[in-house]
């Protein structure tokens, strides 16, 4: 790119950049953040997920990357009507764990209690039916 002074008559000179002949002009996409979440709730969720990973590494007595693929979906747990249903769901995910899981399940349910379900916020202009 070459710098060229402006032919305009102003008190301060301006500099314009011209693309050399034959060079491609990169197309820049404009990025915008369109979704907003409550940061405090996101932080709580992240802390919970880190705690879960730590607990699972202890339960399975292995490194973090060796923990079996378990999907403990907090939103799914929050959708269940009772703690008994939540406990049954988590215990079902931990069937292949040989260590006792009662303390983990109890602590998890205690931490989940009071959390909010993270739903995708609506964009401006969307109308709820």
TrEMBL record:
Gene Ontology molecular functions: protein serine/threonine phosphatase inhibitor activity
Biased composition (Polar residues): 1-13
GO CC, any one term: cytoplasm
Bilayer-crossing regions: none
Keywords linked to the UniProt accession: Acetylation, Phosphoprotein, Protein phosphatase inhibitor
Classification via Gene3D superfamilies: CPI-17
Keyword Phosphoprotein carried by entry: yes
A single BP term in Gene Ontology: innate immune response
Lineage: superkingdom: Eukaryota
Disordered as annotated region, ranges: 1-22
A Pfam family annotated for this UniProt entry: PP1_inhibitor
PANTHER family: PROTEIN PHOSPHATASE 1 INHIBITOR POTENTIATED BY PROTEIN KINASE C (PTHR16188), PROTEIN PHOSPHATASE 1 REGULATORY SUBUNIT 14B (PTHR16188:SF5)
Annotated family: Belongs to the PP1 inhibitor family.
Protein name, per record: Protein phosphatase 1 regulatory subunit 14B
Organism of origin: Denticeps clupeoides
């Amino acid at each position: 790119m070459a710098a060229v002074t402006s032919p305009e008559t102003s008190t301060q000179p301006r500099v314009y950049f011209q693309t050399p002949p034959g060079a491609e002009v990169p197309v820049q996409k404009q990025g915008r953040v369109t979704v907003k979440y409550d940061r405090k709730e996101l932080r709580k969720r992240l802390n919970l997920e880190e705690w879960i990973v730590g607990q699972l590494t202890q339960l399975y007595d292995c490194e973090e990357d060796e923990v079996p693929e378990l999907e403990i979906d907090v939103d799914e747990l929050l959708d269940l009507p009772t703690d008994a249903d939540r406990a049954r769901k988590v215990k079902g995910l931990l069937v292949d764990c040989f260590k006792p899981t009662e303390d983990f399940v109890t602590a998890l349910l205690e931490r989940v209690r009071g959390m909010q379900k993270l739903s995708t916020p609506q964009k401006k202009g969307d109308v709820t039916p």
